[in-house]
Amino acid sequence: MDCVSNPVNVDKFLILPISEGSRTVTEVLSREGSFRILEVLSEDLLSVREISRKTGLPFVDVEAKVMALMESDLVEVKNTSSGQEGKEDIYGPANRFVAFSSEDKSMVV
Predict the structure, then answer these.
(1) Calpha distance 37→52 (Å, rounded)
(2) CA–CA dist 48, 103 (Å, integer)
(3) pLDDT at res. 103
(4) Cβ atoms of residues 80 and 72 within 8 Å
(5) Is the backbone of residue 67 left (phi > 0), alpha (psi -120 to 50) or beta?
(6) CB of 98 within 8 A of CB of 16?
């Protein structure tokens, strides 16, 4: 693929050096259920309650994982809905890819 004729939107990439600084994102992604949450959010925008129902994970666990994913810039609030249970934030993926690079930037994975 020719990058000149097919430019890449770099805003969609979260490129982290393979170092201590990338530890937060890797820790968040290594938590059980985090990838499942990202998977269901890639299919539809959902509230914490809906994520909990779709994944079978406890509400409290989903809430904590979503907050951690937000702090790592992997998930963001897309909307807010009002329903019987009050106002709920609706989450979705931050439309970014995670790539890790060596500190000298000679290798990206």
Answers:
(1) 9
(2) 36
(3) 62
(4) no
(5) alpha
(6) yes
Identify the helix (H) or strand (E) that includes residue 60: helix 59-71
Q: What does pTM read for this prediction?
A: 0.69
- Chain centroid offset of residue 68 CA: 9
Summarize pLDDT for 58-106 with one digit per residue, the tens: 999 999 999 999 988 889 999 998 877 789 999 998 866 666 555 665 5
CA nearest to 88, candidates 99, 79, 96, 80: 80
Contact 78, 45 (CB under 8 A): yes
Q: Are strands 86-93 and 75-83 parallel, antiparallel or unpaired?
A: antiparallel
